[in-house]
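B., you asked whether I could sanity-check this one before it goes into the benchmark set. Here's the sequence:
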Amino acid sequence: MTHPFLDLPPLSAAHFAAIEDRVARLLDTRQDVVITQGEALLPLEGAIRAAAGPGTTALNVITGPYGQTFGNWLRDCGARVIDLAVPFHTAVTAAQVRQAFAEHPEIDFVSLVHAEAATGNTNPVAEIGEAVREQGALFYLDAVASVGAEPVLPDAWGVDLCVIGAQKAMGGPAGVSAVSVSERAWARMAANPQAPRRSYLSLLDWKERWVDGGRTALLHAPAQLEMLALEACLERIEADGPETVMRRHRTAALATRAGAVALGGGLEPYVRAESDAAPVATTLRVPSGVVASELVARALADDPALPLAAGGGALAAEMVRVNHYGADATAAAVHASLAALGAGLAGHGRAVDLAAARRAVESAWR
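And here's what the prediction gave me:
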């Protein structure tokens, strides 16, 4: 008996290339787009190791945990790293980036996370990209969480290496990702003797054996399930319209934020300014005396399908994350999440107003 998930024909090079072209259309880019067979950490690490090395002076912007990871990779490559860290409840500004350039004119590489799903903030990439262009530095962007939830425009913003993943706002699997690469970035990689080659991390292998070869022969057997799921994500976004999908995520974020404030019980937005809050996920600070991870665990015990998570590491005690992305960018998911959090807070003796929270969510959604 055949099985739709097991008895799949091989994915052809032409089909693989066609899916890459759809990713390029989503990003509105003329850069080369390479789909990588793995979770987004694969191209995120591969791009840094290809483009940075001894002699690189990198400005590493830290607005959450992934910025810290990128700094570790850059140092491991032998780059000199200047960290620009801002509190996780806010976003970095172009003025702060320009100040770093003024203090360190030798900076030639900038790494930035667009939206930090882990901390709920989003950074103004268009304005930062303008500053990076003035500096002449290579611009590396993690857009894994933001793609599908807000505009991601590598060409317009001057991004040289833009990494995306399918598992958040695109509503797809975690096992496939992609990176758009500018000509400047390819040249930087080619000039880097430490850039990975003959390696699963190597972007240059894809450039030389896939892109330059006219995309006719794949480097390895592609993962059909993940590739077909990515294609389905792209088809769905194209059918709904990217603007509609992004509007749904932004509305979910505004509704969650408004509903949490109306709910009360000491729950409040973790990211203080609405303009700094990411549309992909909303982070909330729990009141003193309540442990966020325990609050989330109780909510998930009653309904494991809720898009809730506690903050990572030290934030597990104080932060709740509402992951209203992909299929959960809906009013129903927001209502259910806030109702569960309200019930948990009430169990701690906190006064909550579930009706007010529902009205706030409905008002924001309208």
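One thing to flag: DSSP finds 13 helices and 13 strands in the chain. Otherwise nothing jumped out at me.
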